[in-house]
Amino acid sequence: MRPVVEQEILALIRPTDTERQQIKKVAEKLVQAVDATGSARGMVVGSIARDTWIAGEHDIDIFLLFPPSLSREELEKRGLSLARRIAAQFSDRFYEKYAEHPYIYAKVDGYDIDLVPCFDVKSAAAIQSAVDRTPFHTRYIIDKINGLIDDVLLLKQFARAGGIYGSDQMTEGFSGYLCELLVLHYGGFAPLLEAASSWRPGVVIDPERHAAKQFDEPLVVIDPVDPKRNVAAAVSLTRMMGFVELARGYRDVPSASFFTIADQAPISHRELSALLEKRRTYLYAITFATPPIIPEILVPQLKRSVAVIAELLERHGFPVHNARYEPGESRCIFLFELLLNKLPAIRIHAGPPLWNRENADKFFEKYAGGQSGGLPFISAGKYAVEVQREYPDAKTLLSPESILGTSLGKHVRKSLEKGFSVSEGADCYDPEFAAFIGRFFDRSSPLARIKRK
Fold first, then answer.
1. Which of 67, 282, 297, 347 is the most buried (most CB within 10 A)?
2. Is residue 2, in this structure, part of any structural domain at all?
3. What gap in Å lies between CA 286 and CA 323, rounded to an integer?
4. Is 112 in the same domain as 173?
């Protein structure tokens, strides 16, 4: 017997018969339109096809399956052409988007539609692009999911409320397909949580017992249709352990709070100012134009760039307490919280030991004239000298010369080269990023956030 709290949640997230009929009607007419062209075969994929979608979701994925004899170039050209024709039949709101190769997004009858060309291969072993696997995922789940659909819905809502749903670069969490496979493997929502409560890094799940290689990610779930792929490759150790924490917390004290998505209230300028006064830390923001590239390429570059700038600050003596990034539609922001923002004008520059005669002599000759501000002295058998600090305050260090001298992501560098702004303290407040700034200071685990609710 399912717990009352789960029954109540299912009543809220399970699509009604009317909702199912409406969304399937739209999906079917799009598939029929594709089939009618004779150029490709239409197929509904994803959660809509598998009946594992949550009420209110309006995303429909339609795949356009082309003969595998086409070249990648022909698939892209003919696939996009057909996708545009189909979209134009039902909508005047459609445009091109990009994944491994381009596809068409359209708004049809209030639903978000992705029209994605792929190869109609006979087996997943014969895929020519990553999206070719998707039809096989859909068939696999449809064949096995009967009786467990409600468990998948619960898991998806549980993961969403916990902030760990989504395999995108920003989230690094659980995809819908991964949720389905975990429920299938463990036989339901409850047994999955029981098992996950004891997970450690290195868990390997192989539903078909056909793994063809080893993986080093913290969670490994071998794709049932592709023995060389880890479905959980996107799941970071932080997100995996977040799920473990949530599983333990829910099993201890089941509550609807574990399924409730809480909105993050944006921080105000006054609240930010008071928070910094209380924390006695130093906040710096770098804002710049968002590079015109897809999120899958942009996010790793933002992640790398904020890390190298944080390392630059650390290297010059400014301890970084927290550093994060956020891409916006038109602008991106890097946010750094420092424990110090000003340093003495001088610092000790360590030299070689005196028994290393050659290098010791070079060091002595270089600094013996006192041009650097001090004369060489001996400390613990090594030469050292007091020198003027190049960057005695953090804001001076965050200059174009210094930042552009680091190993930034390619497209981030191009954007920063065109100009960026540096803000300090409460002046870092920006209405566009108010919610992000609030989250920046709200460092709490998924269970801690739920307990707070």
1. 282
2. no
3. 11
4. no
Give the H or E element holding residue 174: none
d(CA 284, CA 100): 36
> How many other β-carbons are positioned within 10 Å of the β-carbon of residue 185?
15
Cα dihedral 384→387→392→397 (10° resolution):
-90
Token output for 55: 């009420």
Domain of residue 334 covers 269-342+393-452
pLDDT at 222: 97
Q: Are residues 166 and 186 in the same domain?
A: yes
**Is 204 exposed, middle or buried (CB count within 10 Å of its CB: 0-12, 13-18, 19+)?**
middle
Domain membership flag for residue 7: no
According to DSSP, the β-strands at 111-119 and 59-66 are parallel
Band of the pLDDT at 373, cuts 50, 70, 90?
Answer: confident
Q: How far apart are CA 79 and CA 102, in angstroms?
A: 9
pLDDT(233) > 90: yes
- Which ranges of 201-356 does DSSP label H, i.e. alpha helix? 237-252, 269-279, 295-315
Give residue 182's identity as a one-letter amino acid code: L
Dihedral (CA of 354, 358, 359, 365) sign: positive
- State which H helix or E strand residue 397 sits in: helix 394-397
Residues 160, 63 share a domain? no
pLDDT level of residue 453 (50, 70, 90 thresholds): low
With tokens 């409850």, the residue in question is 190
**Residue 230 forms beta bridges with which residues?**
222
What's the rounded Cα separation, in Å, for the pair 321 and 239?
21
For the record, the structure tokens of 310 come out as: 């944080």
85: which residues sit within 8 A by CB, 6+ positions away? 37
Q: Which residue has the tokens 């770098």?
A: 286
Q: Mean pLDDT, to the nearest integer, of 143-171?
A: 95
In a domain, 207, yes or no: yes
- Could you give the CA distance from residue 226 to residue 137 in angstroms, rounded to a whole number? 10
Q: Are residues 198 and 171 in the same domain?
A: yes
Mean pLDDT, rounded, for 223-248: 97
| CATH number of the domain residue 82 falls in | 3.30.460.10
CB 230 within 8 A of CB 178: no
Number of domains in the chain: 4
Over residues 242-255, mean pLDDT: 97
Residues 284 and 425 occupy one common structural domain: yes
pLDDT score, position 1: 84
Say whether both 336 and 351 belong to one domain. no
**156 and 298 in one domain?**
no
pLDDT in tens, 21-62: 999 999 999 999 999 999 999 999 999 999 999 999 889 999
